[in-house]
Every structure is written in structure tokens, then in C-alpha cells.
Design goal:
There is one protein chain. The chain is mostly beta strands. The protein folds into 2 domains: 82 residues; 363 residues, 7 Propeller (Methylamine Dehydrogenase, Chain H), CATH 2.130.10. The chain is built from 1 helix and 39 strands. The strands form 9 sheets. Strands 9, 10, 11, 12 and 39 form a 5-stranded antiparallel sheet that branches. Strands 29, 30, 31, 32 and 33 form a 5-stranded antiparallel sheet that branches. Strands 34, 35, 36, 37 and 38 form a 5-stranded antiparallel sheet that branches. A hairpin with a 6-residue loop joins strand 36 and strand 37. The radius of gyration is 22 Å and the shape is globular.
Length: 450
């Protein structure tokens, strides 16, 4: 009795047939397994993970785990392994006298708990270069070696507004900051999205508040060095692209514009160059804020802050990128952030107006594919209602959820940690929120994970 294994890179995976009390230790890199001794015809089996892999830490799930033995060997049990998240990064635009800071936290693989990567819980954050102000958006390079930071600058445009690269060392700390790139004097970068090219350097897209409308810029960084934008003139976006996402098929960039009620759609062509599709931007919501794309393609989900309570909205898109509103779901007050777990099973929304997180399961098969079903009442983050919870992220193994508290210059400077209940998707708090600034600072907003 056995089956297949995908994604196993760690050592120490032990699978057990709990009915017959037999087990096997699986070698890293294995694509299959067999548990011996065998089971006689007429017997039953139930395969589970006795010990999860380590080095690197992984989380393995079993499907087709149970059944009856008839007259043939069982080879249909499937084990899928994914890496557990290693480091959580946050941007604090209002820390350090409103100049801003960045912080990194290592993840305990068994619990999801966070520890400051620099070892100092009272001062977990680092201060950007003197030329940077108000880090507002962050994104991790697919290699895991670099953190890209959008510094929106001071409210008097033209001071500290740039995109910077930080080196991530093996311990998860941020060390050397590269030379920031200023796109234009009137450009205030605020959102980032990465197109993870399978081979070669990724494409980095930057959304910004500009005059008179928002803009998008595209880069093709090499070993963290941004270089010049791919086009001389920024792409015209709406007003203002607070978030961006690249769809899983790597064909489109979606950008909701909170202040004009539109969603822009840009097609990705050769070399990462963008072109607005026919009909873009689409005027489909009152005040779209954040966007997440299904890992399987076909759907995006956009929060809307124009009603109270707010909504998260399901859109389908065709091979041209054109959007169709499929359904609308009620969430909490002022939904700022939305995230989908990498397995594509669960969706979460952070509600800035009432300090909660709403959770949904995602229908993955059948005629209602993409539909959302609530996992139950929204849960509080513990960060306080006035902290205005903003972005949130799920770790690569789909075990842990992290929420930034929050977009407020006077309150809120922490990360809430949740475990995700298997099958149901219900988020369960892990301890109290973790302070993310250097004491007295505020405004933990953007969050990213390695």
C-alpha cells in the first residue's frame, strides 16, 4: 500500500498507516512511497503524517488516505508537501518620526509564532536610508534574497519617493539597501506586484499615486538591481492603485482604484511590457481597494469600501482579461486587505473599520467554481478597532495567516498571528499581536512573506 509524493525537499518525513500500525521514513526528493508489510485483502488502511519534514521545514498533506484492500496493491494515496514560511516582513510608514521603518520576523514552523529576526523585541525595525520616506508597499523577490520597498515619500511630493531593494540575509534580517530608484518627481509609489518568471529575473510592477491620475511602472530587476523602467513613460492607471496583483497564468496585471471606482487590467506581453486591454479600466464597484487572484486562474476577488459593512466581490475573466462580476459577499466594515492561501482553498479579508478578519472557503470544482462560503463569524485580530487592519498574507504551507495592524498614524503597530484550521479554514489566534515598531512608532501596514 502506497502512493505518490510531490514537492518533498525536506528530510525526516514519516508516514504511518494508523489502522495496521506500520510506518515508513521517506527520503527527501522521493516521488513515491510504500508502507510495509502489506495488508491482506479485506483489510482497511488510513495513512497520515506522523512526522513532518525538516531542513527545510515543510508541511505535507495526505489525500486519498483511507480505503479498503481488495485484490490489488493500493497506489492511489497522494502526499503533497510545501515549504513552511520562513520570514514575515512589514513596513511601518509612520514609525521613526513619520519617516518609516521596516521589520522582519522569523516564523516558528510548528506554531507560526513570530520572533524578531534581529533578536530584539523592543526594537525589531530598521530605518531606511535618509533618501527614503514612508515605506508603503513591499514584495519579496522569488529567490527569497531581496525585499523590494515602495517608499511613497512625504505628503509634499518629491521628497523620499522611490523604490528600493534590501538584501535578505540567511537569518531573515534586512542588511544592505541598494540604490533607490526615483521614477519621477510627482510619483508616489505605494503598491508592488511580482511576475515570477519561471526562468530568469522576475518582472516588478509598481503602482503609484501621481498627477493627475495613478500610474504603473515595470522593471526587470537582475539580482535585486532594478535598473531603468521598461518603458520611458509610465502606464496611466486609475486614481489610485492601492494594490496590484499578477494573475496565476502570468497574462494580466489587475489594479483596483479606490478613488474612482474602477479596476484596471493590463496584459503582460514579451519582456514584461504592459498594455491596457480593451475596455480597461472597468467601472464595476463603488470604491475597490484590494485584489487577490486565484492560484488556479479564472477569478480575482476585490474588496469594496463604498458600503457599510463592506464587500468582497468575485470576478471572472476570459482570455482577453475582460472582467465579469459573478457575485458579491458581505464582510466587515472597511475591508482593506484580501488574501488567498496558496492551495486555493481559503480567502481572508481584513476589515479595518471593526478590527476583524472574515474567512471564506472557495469552491474549487463544479459549476460554482470560484464561489465563496463563509467559514463563520469574523474573528477579532486583537490589534484594536482603531488600528485599522490593512494587508494580510498566508504562509506558503497554508497553515498560518498574518495580519498587519494598521494604517493609522496614532494607533496600531503590530502583527496578528492565526493558525488556519484544516478543512474548515477557520482562523484561530496564536497569542497576542506581536509589536512591529521600535517602541512608540505606529502604522504597520504592508506585509509580505518569504
Amino acid at each position: 500500500m502506497g502512493g505518490t509524493i510531490t514537492g518533498l525537499t525536506g528530510t525526516g518525513l514519516v508516514l504511518k498507516d494508523t489502522v495496521n500500525n506500520n510506518q515508513v521514513t521517506v527520503t527527501a526528493g522521493s516521488a513515491s512511497f510504500t508502507i510495509t508489510p502489506g495488508v491482506a485483502p479485506g483489510g482497511t488502511y488510513n495513512v497520515s503524517v506522523l512526522t513532518q519534514p525538516s531542513t527545510p521545514a515543510q508541511f505535507c498533506r495526505v489525500t486519498g488516505a483511507t480505503g479498503n484492500i481488495t485484490t490489488a496493491n493500493i497506489t492511489s494515496v497522494a502526499v503533497a508537501c510545501t515549504n513552511v514560511g520562513q520570514v514575515v516582513f512589514v513596513a511601518n510608514p509612520y514609525d521613526n518620526g513619520n519617516k518609516g521603518t521596516l521589520a522582519s520576523f522569523t516564523i516558528t514552523p510548528s506554531t507560526g509564532a513570530l520572533t524578531p529576526a534581529n533578536g530584539n523585541p523592543n526594537a525589531p525595525a530598521v530605518v531606511p536610508a535618509a533618501t527614503d520616506n514612508n515605506p508603503t508597499g513591499i514584495a519579496v523577490d522569488p529567490s527569497g534574497n531581496f525585499l523590494y520597498v515602495a517608499n511613497s515619500g512625504t505628503y509634499s511630493v518629491g521628497t523620499g519617493n522611490d523604490v528600493a531593494t534590501w538584501t535578505i540575509d540567511p537569518a531573515g534580517t534586512l542588511t544592505v539597501e541598494g540604490t533607490p530608484v526615483t521614477i519621477s518627481p510627482t510619483n508616489q509609489p505605494g503598491s508592488l506586484a511580482i511576475d515570477p518568471v519561471p526562468s530568469g529575473s522576475p518582472y516588478l510592477y509598481v503602482g503609484a499615486n501621481d498627477s493627475p491620475n495613478g500610474t504603473l511602472d515595470a522593471f526587470n530587476p537582475v539580482l535585486g538591481v532594478l535598473g531603468a523602467p521598461l518603458t520611458v513613460t509610465p502606464y496611466t492607471a486609475g486614481n489610485v492603485p492601492n494594490t496590484l496583483v499578477v494573475d496565476s497564468t502570468r497574462q494580466f496585471v489587475f489594479e483596483p482604484n479606490n478613488f474612482d471606482g474602477t479596476i484596471g487590467v493590463f496584459a503582460i506581453s514579451t519582456g514584461g511590457v504592459l498594455a491596457a486591454i480593451t475596455g480597461s479600466p472597468f467601472a464595476l464597484l463603488g470604491a475597490p481597494y484590494a485584489v487577490a487572484a486565484s492560484p488556479t486562474g479564472q477569478f480575482i476577488y476585490v474588496t469594496d469600501t463604498s458600503t457599510s459593512p463592506g464587500t468582497v466581490n468575485e470576478f471572472s475573466y476570459d482570455n482577453t482579461g475582460a472582467l465579469t462580476l459573478v457575485n458579491t459577499y458581505t464582510v466587515g466594515v472597511t475591508p482593506y486587505g484580501v488574501a488567498i492561501d496558496p492551495s486555493g482553498q481559503f480567502l481572508y479579508v481584513s476589515n479595518a473599520g471593526d478590527g476583524t478578519v472574515s474567512g471564506f472557503t472557495i469552491t474549487t470544482t463544479g459549476p460554482n467554481t470560484g464561489a465563496l462560503t463563509s467559514v463563520g463569524p469574523a474573528v477579532t485580530t486583537g490589534g484594536g478597532v482603531s488600528a485599522t487592519q490593512t494587508s494580510l498574507v498566508v504562509d506558503p504551507s497554508s497553515q498560518y495567516l498574518y495580519v498587519a495592524n494598521g494604517d493609522n498614524a496614532s494607533t496600531g503597530s503590530s502583527i496578528s498571528v492565526f493558525t488556519i484550521t484544516p478543512v474548515t479554514g477557520v482562523p484561530v489566534a496564536v497569542g497576542s499581536p506581536v509589536p512591529a515598531t521600535n517602541g512608540g512608532g505606529n502604522g504597520t501596514t504592508a506585509i509580505a512573506i518569504k
